[in-house]
Design brief:
231 residues; 5-stranded mixed beta sheet; 7 helices; alpha+beta; single chain
Length: 231
């Protein structure tokens, strides 16, 4: 039995388009069982065609496609391309087959995959919330730092000059100051430890922070603690 017997089910332009897909190698297929062939149309987007029979002895072949045309109860170019490809690779599948019928591809089963998608969406939402929390915190601390700097400049006249620190200590102090913790006026172990503890709640990777930031926080803390210990 040749699939050409079913040409009358397809409009001429549909057959032409389907044969073009087949001849250009846009069709791949597999035969998971003696009663089913699955066809994949490589296009943008891609579509799936299923050719199925009730049994090996059945005279009918049902054709279903995932494209919009097929959903309008019409035979499409993908179905014709799939029939041509199946006839070329698995000709025995159509032996004694005389009838061609349409069918819809069953809807995807919900269950574990749906649950997995829901969990992924929930995780993504939590990550987004953590990122937003971190961003908001930084904006708030940046604004506070600007206000402190402005107030400091206004009261700078007549105020004793700040003590000078080694470059490494200055950099560590700048890190804390940029994140809302100005330690230069009260530099002691208790103040540094308290500032580190507060920032760790924001920068820790388990709380939505960044690994590099927590490493920088620990490094700057160690620099200040070592400097204080030597004083």
């Amino acid at each position: 039995m040749s699939v050409n017997t079913w040409e009358h089910f397809f409009k001429p332009e549909v057959r032409t388009a389907g044969r073009t897909l087949f001849s250009k190698g846009k069709v791949s297929l597999s035969q998971p069982s003696d009663t089913e062939i699955v066809v994949y149309i490589r296009a943008t987007p891609g579509f799936k065609v299923i050719l199925k029979t009730a049994s090996v002895e059945s005279q009918a072949v049902t054709v279903s496609c995932s494209c919009p045309i097929a959903k309008k109860d019409k035979f499409c170019k993908h179905a014709w391309a799939g029939l041509l490809a199946a006839d070329d690779k698995y000709p025995d599948f159509f032996e004694a087959k005389t009838e061609l019928e349409r069918a819809e591809i069953p809807a995807a089963k919900t269950g574990s995959s749906a649950a997995s998608s829901a969990k992924s969406a929930e995780f993504a939402a939590k990550q987004a919330a953590y990122s937003q929390k971190q961003t908001d915190y930084r904006k708030e601390q940046y604004q506070k730092q600007k206000e402190r700097q402005k107030a400091y400049k206004e009261s700078k006249k007549g105020v004793a000059k700040k003590p000078e620190f080694p470059k490494a200590v200055e950099r560590a102090l700048s890190f804390f100051a940029d994140n809302g913790m100005d330690l230069s006026e009260s530099l002691d172990k208790q103040t540094v430890s308290a500032a580190k503890k507060k920032l760790a709640r924001v920068f820790h990777p388990d709380l939505g922070g960044d690994h590099e930031e927590i490493v920088e926080l620990n490094n700057c803390t160690d620099i200040l603690i070592e400097y204080i210990s030597k004083q």
